[in-house]
Amino acid sequence: MGTGDPLGMESAHTQASGMGGMRAAGDLVARMQMTRRMRLKAAKRYVADKLGCTPRDLSDPLAMEQIRLDNGLGTLPFTSAVHPDEPGMIEAKFNIARILDIPINCVERFKTRARI
Amino acid sequence: MEARIPTRMGDGALVEMTRSEIKADLEEGTQIAAKKARAPELTEDELDHLLDIYASPARFTAVDIGDEVVMTNDGTGTKHIGNRVQDLQTFEQVLGVDIIELWQIDYSYKAVKTNVAHEGQSMKIAQLLCTNPVQYGAMPDLGRYSKPDGPIPNWSELLPMGKIDEARAAQEEAAEMLITDINYVADKMVAAGTDGIDFDTTGAAGDADFLAGLRACRMLREKYPWLGIEIGMASEFVLGMHGQLEFDGERLAGMWPKDQLRMAQQAGASIYGPAVNINTGKSTAWNIARAITFIKPAMEIAEIPVHVNVGMGVGGVPTCVYPPADATSRASKAFVEILKIDGY
User: Between chains, do B333 and A16 touch, taking CB under 8 Å as contact?
Assistant: First the structure.
């Protein structure tokens, strides 16, 4: 639960103990906590198994950059600008939903609205 | 003569204390919390570990590689940099948080209701432009339903007049309105693509506020089995403004984090966020020992992720506009290493 008023605490917390979000795989572990109510250890193990890596890799931006590219899970727009054909944002979330085997609300609504 | 170590007070002031003084503050913090919440004091090993973290002059500290936790962040679309969606992207891509949150400055479901179409439009855009999970957050904020802000007689005025039954009835009526509003906003946000709903600062107006959050959570869980639902608390203790309200047959007034967590689990929450407020006149060492003692019994029974509130003025982070990184990182490390929490 949140770091409260957003005046610099996030930078301290993310550097001290954060998984790095989509810079690594924190967003994927967070999705398992949200959709399956998994505690941290189980969520890390689940994501690592799905991606064929170790739980420690999930917080490593170097390891995860390649794993995200290999699986189309989205990278930072700055770096994905060097890979313009890679999935980004909403496109990446289609792949995240499939690989993690979870529903992602905006993906399901995208399919419905686009008549896919 | 014992060396003096720079450390922080609960208001953020930089002071110097000896290792013995910090140790004494840790011991006093855990003793006070244990007595209040009828919880066990921290063990000697845990206090020694906290002493190592807090009796260090280092400017920054961190957990070991591999021990990182998930960062949920309320207040991430704050228009610090550009518009709200640009701020969400900044928190996602520059700061590297894991769950980002769209919100509006009038952080109350009652206020959001009147502006929900605009908020839904922003959520839809955010979902197209962000890879991270994006949740929508606001406070249950039960007090907003009482006069002069709302239509319900003000229970804070009725109670001093001795009108106990009227005050209780007013809170019950307000809670029904709040449950309806939370459902209304959540339904619209789900339609706009949200990944989750955050009930932030739940229980701020006491047990009726907490009850409304729990009942709304259960209703949303039945409608949306996949939805992330986060119940973050306002403080370590549920005030008995009503005093008789129950959820699943259990009285809510007077609940500490362990029982708050049990209720959140039973209601179907995905994530529970305990909050322990800072005593600004005491050291951060005193505050962290007190906070960890309050939350530790909850961690021992947790079946869902626990994301501790560690923002300005809660969870060992000082109450000041720019919380110093030395104090913030110490709190961050302490909760992860002592309590094995699931996130912040």
Answer: yes
